[in-house]
Each structure stands twice: as C-alpha cells, then as structure tokens.
Amino acid sequence: MKLWAGRFKKELDPTTNDFNRSLPFDSRMYRSDIEGSIAHATMLGECGIIPTEDKEKIIAGLEGILSDIESGKLQFDDVSEDIHTFVEAELTKRIGDAGKRLHTARSRNDQVALDIRLHLRHECDELVAMLKNLISVLGNKAEQYSETVMPGYTHLQRAQPIVFGHQLLAYAEMFMRDIDRIKDCKKRMNVSPLGSAALAGTTYPLDREKVAKLLEMNGVTRNSLDGVSDRDFVLELASAMSIIMVHLSRFAEEIILWSSFEFKFIELDDAFSTGSSIMPQKKNPDIAELVRGKSGRVFGDNMALLTAMKAIPLAYNKDMQEDKEAIFDAIDTVEKCLAAFTPMLDTMKVNAKNMRKAAAGGFINATDCADFLVSKGLPFRDAYKATGELVARCIELSTTLEELPLEEYIKVCDLFDDEVYKAIDLDKCVSDRTVYGGPAPSQVKLQAAELKKRVNDI
Cystine design at 376: which of 200, 220, 415, 457 (Cβ 3.0–4.6 Å)? Predict the structure, then answer.
C-alpha cells in the first residue's frame, strides 16, 4: 500500500506506477535510509514522542533488515515505490504497529534529503581514497623519473626541456585540487535536514541536533524550506567530478599520444591494452580512450542535474527524483575510470631514450641560448632576435644548436663564446631550473617528497 493511499480511491495505473517508482535506483541508499531511521527513532524515544519500547523494537527491526539486505536474505520487491516505503513496510511486517510510529514527525521529503546526503558523504570518502591512490602512484613515478629529460610542449610543439617526473607532478597537483573540492563539498553536504518535514517543520518537540550528532553530521539545516529543496551539494559534487574527468581526460590524451608509434615515450602493459580484430600488429590504448570518452557522460550527468533544478519552485517537487540516477551514474563512472586508470599508469613502461631523443630536437634549448646572451649584458629582446636567427640558420643547415659551429654563432652576435655549449646542454638547461615548482631534478625530488606528505596528511 502506498504511503499516500488514504486520499485516493483508485490504484495507480501500472504504467504510471513504474514511471513514478524510484526503488530500482534509490535502493542503493538502503544503508543510509536505515541509519537515518535509527537515529530518528532514537531521538523520538529520547524526546518521549514515542514509547521507549517501540523505539527499541524499531531499532532492532531496522538492524535486522540491514543485516538481511547485506547478506542477501532480503531482496527488494517489485511493488514498493522507493527505498523508504520498502524499509518501512518490511519493518511493520516484522514488528507490527510499532513500525508505523517510525514516520512520526518526518516526511519523505526530509527523509530523502537526509538519505542522499548520507549516501553521497560516503561516496565522497570513496572518491578521496581513490584519488589518493592515484596521486601516490604519480608521486612514486615522479621520483623514479626525476632525471628523465623530455620535451615540454606548448601548442603541442616542443617548447622547453623538462623531466618526465615534472610532467607527472603537474597531474598530481590537479588531482590534489580535486580532493580539496570533494572535501569542501562534503562539508556543506554533511548537515541534517531532518525536522524540516514536508516543508514547514513540525509541531513535535524534536531534538534535531541530537539526530545530527548521532549521524556524525556537522549541524542542521537552518530553514525548513531549504532543508527539503536544497540539492546544491548534488550539483557541487557533480561539478567536482566533472573537473576530475577533465583532468583524467587530459591525462588520457597524453597517454594515447605518448604510446603512439610517432612518440614511443611509453608502452602500456598488455593487461591494460587491447588488440585489433584484423590488424595483428596493433596495441591500442583502449582504457585511456574509454576514460577520455566517458568524460562526456559525466559532463552530461552534470548538465542534467543543473537543468532539472534550474526552474523548480520551493519546496519539494517530483523533478528532484531525477537527481539520483544522474549523480549515481556520475559517481559510478568516475570510480570505474579511476579504478582502471591508476593501475594502467602504475604498470606502464617509460622509454627514456626516446624522450631524450625528442628533447634533443626542436631547439627546446633556444630560450637558454638567449639567456646566455642576457648574461653577457645583451637586452633580452635583442638576445631573443639573435637566437631566432640562429635557429633559422640551423634549419637551413639541417643541424641543431648543440652542433652548430661557433663561427656561425659569432656571425650573429660577437658576445658568443665556447661557454654557450655548456649553457645549452639539455641536462644543464633542466638542472638550472631550480625555482620552486620548476623541473630541475632536485626540485622534482623535493616536490615528490612533499606530495607524499601532503597525501598522508589527508
């Protein structure tokens, strides 16, 4: 029987019933629903709103339901409208009329608002744990490849020399910011709306703070209308996960490029690659490509949530049921991507020789050549122009700055001497960039060590 059946003389149309019910997707919140109900029943009993005996029966009954769901003994039915109806109906079946007291001073509006907060709070912890694991892999790899010279790129053109560890730490910083966003979102999420009831609170003498404390929440919502209609925390989490997917997708794109025959900077482990049905030579970076593709799915979930909420008047509206499928899909997608991406990264092989070979071409030490002239007293803009002329000359002669004869240097600017070859040595170009946050091996090792400490402190 529907919780709202007393007002109606007809059963809901079967097709409409299927369209209306949310149990197929909100059943995953069973633990949160039961934990919230236990806290609510505890408070009702302690405030004298329901008899202590009924409170104890309710709590024991709910604990039994939770145990039976998790053991598989109790299955979700095809009748209940949602997880709240299912749990309450099962509780009443087990303990009788005492079960009917559970809903005292509570609406499904504040109940579902609580359930999704509790559920997403747990998912925030899962996301942070997975991101920490990924960052730890990046930190270890960065330390391992702190002296592996490679070209850094702008516009996908070779720009300046860096080390591979520096490139990896850039992604680590992105994922550290993702953790900050998730944790910050959790703070605003972790307040109890119970006591808001349908929209206007209740006449019962509730202890809302007691419920919040039992559920380890930071406090209670301040306005009953806002308490049942707020889904900002869902939008915020979806936005934070969209940014995670931006970072994963950017990283995946570079993995795809680096593993190509044209780059050959890395090779993915066979366990994280696939082949072709017709071309036996192929080794495809399908995991990275899927991660890149699934970013659009999470962005779509984010947009669906924003669109669902954008024109809803206060307080609760059925549109808000749409929040769950979208946020659950986004969470599942991000977690699957992190679960696949992290070991793929951890097991990849790095071709340091090819990275070094690529760094040797493309004149990525040109800025250092200009800086050499600056050290001799030439204004930077003049030094920049002179070095540009040298690069053009190298292209004419099919050579590099390192191999260009000194007489060619002097033709462009008489401030050049033999020391220029030391100044443009790739290892020196990298090792001299010791500014904090720079790519010098000493800095990368320092940053990797700091990263490990920061992760451990989370």
Answer: 415
User: Does 155 have pLDDT greater than 50?
Assistant: yes
Alpha-carbon span 32 to 3, nearest angstrom:
20
* Catalytic annotation, residues: 155, 276
Q: What is the pLDDT at residue 4?
A: 46
Between CA 368 and CA 153 the distance in angstroms is 16
Q: Cα(283)–Cα(268) distance, rounded to whole angstroms? A: 9
CA torsion sign for 264, 269, 272, 276 is positive
> Predicted confidence band at 145 (pLDDT cuts at 50, 70, 90)?
very high
Question: Distance (Å, rounded) from C-alpha 285 to C-alpha 275?
Answer: 9
How far is residue 239's CA from residue 116's CA, in Å, rounded to a whole number?
A: 17
Question: Any bridge partners for residue 350, and if so which?
Answer: 266
Burial of 206 (0-12, 13-18, 19+ CB in 10 A): buried
**Residue 30 identity:** Y
The torsion region of residue 220 among left (phi > 0), alpha (psi -120 to 50) and beta comes to beta
Q: Identify the H or E element spanning 86.
A: helix 83-95
Query: Model-level pTM greater than 0.70?
Result: yes
As a whole number of angstroms, the distance between CA 177 and CA 185 comes to 12
Does the CA dihedral 209-213-214-218 come out positive or negative?
A: positive
Q: Tell me which H or E stretch contains 229.
A: helix 224-229
Residue 6: what pLDDT?
A: 58
